Amino acid sequence: METIKLRDEYIKLGQALKAAGLVGSGVDAKFVIEDGLVQVNGQVEYQRGKKLRAGDVVTFEGNAIKIEERPDGQTLTPDKAGRAVPKKHGQERGNNTIHDN
């Protein structure tokens, strides 16, 4: 089973198929998804933009892709300059307030 480690909170279905090398392009991903050839967690999925999160399993043509968290458990969020930076505990997207628990 192929494994994809998340860089952000989610990866879109079409991106996951490309990252795993199961399709050659976004257009290929679009067609196989629209044709009902891809399953997410055992259910046929027709949305290329479906957000996959840790624990989801995608299957296509007998190949399985498992979506996992980053090894350090952190997700990355864009900073004001658009760079990916680790999300701080308690920080919500669009909210610059850090809450210490």
TrEMBL record:
UniProt KW Translocase keyword: no
Organism: Lacrimispora saccharolytica (strain ATCC 35040 / DSM 2544 / NRCC 2533 / WM1)
SUPFAM superfamilies: Alpha-L RNA-binding motif
Taxonomic superkingdom: Bacteria
Keywords associated with the record: RNA-binding
Protein name (database record): Uncharacterized protein
Residue ranges the record marks as coiled coil: none
InterPro entries xrefs: S4_RNA-bd_sf
GO molecular function annotations of the record: RNA binding
Region ranges (Disordered): 69-101
